[in-house]
Amino acid sequence: MNIIEPNHSLMLILLSKLTGDEPVDEIYNRTRFAWKTNIDRARSVDYVISHNSNEEIVGIFKPTKWLHADDKEFKSIDRGSYPDRIGFIGEEAPEDIQEMYRDNTTPTRKKGAANPIRYLESMHEKEAEDEDFDIQTVIGNLKNYFTEEIKEGRKVFVKEQNFKVRPGYGPDKFYLDRVQGSYEYSLQNLIHHILWQEHHYESFLNSRQLKDVKKAVDAEPDGIYGTGIDDNLSDSEYKEDEVAQESLDIIYFQVIQHVGSLLKEFDFFDSTDFLDMGYIETDDDSDKDENEDKNEDSENLVNHTYFAGVSVDDEEIDDLVSSAYKFLSAAYANLDQEIDGEHPQFYLVGNKESGKNFLSSPKNLELIKIFKGVEWQDDPEPNEENIKKTFKDNSKLTFFDDGYYMIWFVFQCPEESSEEEQDPGEHWEYLFQNFAADLPDLALAGYNSKFKEIIWQQWSEGQFDEGAISNTDSSDHYSGNNVESEHQINLECFELLD
Q1: In which domain, by residue range, is 23 found?
Q2: How many angstroms separate the CA atoms of 162 and 154, rounded?
Q3: Is residue 200 located within the same domain as residue 251?
Q4: What's the burial of 346, exposed, middle or buried (CB within 10 Å: 0-12/13-18/19+)?
Q5: Is 3 within a domain?
Q6: Distance between CA atoms of 378 and 373, rounded to whole angstroms?
Q7: Left (φ > 0), alpha (ψ -120 to 50) or beta: where does 161 sit?
Q8: Is 307 part of any domain?
Q9: Contact of 333 with 115, CB cutoff 8 Å
Q10: Are residues 116 and 130 in the same domain?
């Protein structure tokens, strides 16, 4: 069988422990409930395809409504209520869609991948994303060019009190601060000639449009290229020109904005034209943004440090990498709490000495940045090669805790938010519980606002195993000073990220 080539936006869901004899209704219910992913992203998909561990497709469904997994619509499934997960109401995909996909397989999952959900973009969307990537590459190249041009010309600019440059492009005379009025000698004219002479236009214009660019360069060297110069276009060509002009507008705006930010460093820079054209914010705009940010951050939540351990078979690097990849994949999918406006940063814990009593002395520990990001923000996924490089680059450290047969990670998470009506300790009941559900095992130590102290809790196969939450009759054994005396984690370790 061939791997599917998506003509639609698809969500792929791995269903585990299938016998192959499940009826369609059971496959439908298992496919639609309940998953840890962003609901807005889920709503953007056309179809949901469920598959088994051999990548064989077992169900294809069209969602008609996405809901949070604690909605009463899912009560009949009788598999619990999960406010921080989602599910859908839908139906089997039409027969033509079934024929398009069912005799194919889904792409092979990465080794050790913990998250059962993947997204596949349609080939059309992928082409659009590739084009957007090309535009951002062009913008990056232009920004780098002007950064170097302004850096190298600084002394001349100050001496002559103007921003005239002769870079060897087009008419070879431009003023970097000329952005309004005629295009002659303007910054836009310089950008246009760089796009042409450095072949950047070729990355986002087609052959017909490139012919028009050449005509513009030859006939009006002091102007710029824009679409819409030909009235005899077909509907498809008109749409192509609309897309091209949008790309040009983005390029000009972002590059000119960048140049303006660099010119602001010069005392003699007159920013009037940049302000009039919207390339530079006014002070009032900046103050407004700052005030809005302050209002948004009105609830000052304390960030707490957590130590998380996952088991490894032995201390061979491949075993360490495999366990680390599973942990980071689960963290990427579940631990989505921002820290002071930043995406969560995860650290690998290394010990300068042996692996015995691994966390008993904070002075022996080194915290190494290993991954930063969350799935719902479409950050890049954890990468096994990068993980392996992190271990190799820090080979002088010990990572294997031979007391617990674990490797350890550190991250921060804000306390529960009263503004979002979160109860004390709710992170442990939902956020960390869902995180643990994507791992074969997990040990977690950190502050619990319900207990009002640091606790220890373990999970096995996604279920509470041993700890302060699961052993309520002996919770003291797993909390406070006993985390240090009974579980060998020095409480001073929890201050390492403060």
Answers
A1: 10-121
A2: 10
A3: yes
A4: buried
A5: no
A6: 8
A7: left
A8: yes
A9: yes
A10: no
Domain final residue pick, 121, 151, 181: 121
Examine residue 320 and state whether it is found in any structural domain, yes or no. Answer: yes
This prediction's pTM: 0.46
The size of the chain, in residues, is: 498
* Cβ contact 106:55 at 8 Å: yes
CA proximity to 382, closest of 356, 409, 354, 401: 409
Q: Indicate whether 337 and 255 sit together in one domain.
A: no
Assess whether 257 and 389 both reside in one domain.
no
Judgement on whether residues 112 and 179 belong to the same structural domain of the protein: no
Same domain, 347 and 481: yes
Q: What is the pLDDT of residue 292?
A: 47
Q: How far is C-alpha 157 from the geometric centre of its chain's CA atoms?
A: 41
User: For the chain, how many helices (H) and strands (E)?
Assistant: 15, 15
Q: Give Cβ neighbours of residue 308 (< 8 Å, ≥ 6 apart).
A: 327, 408, 409, 410, 411, 442, 443, 444
Q: Which residues fall within 8 angstroms of residue 150, CB to CB, at 6 or more apart?
A: 157, 176, 259, 262, 263
pLDDT confidence tier of residue 256, bands split at 50, 70 and 90: very high
Which domain-ending residue is among 222, 254, 284?
Answer: 284
Residue 429, judged by CB atoms within 10 A of its CB (0-12, 13-18, 19+), counts as middle
For the stretch 194-238, pLDDT in tens is 999 999 998 888 888 999 999 999 999 999 998 865 667 787 788
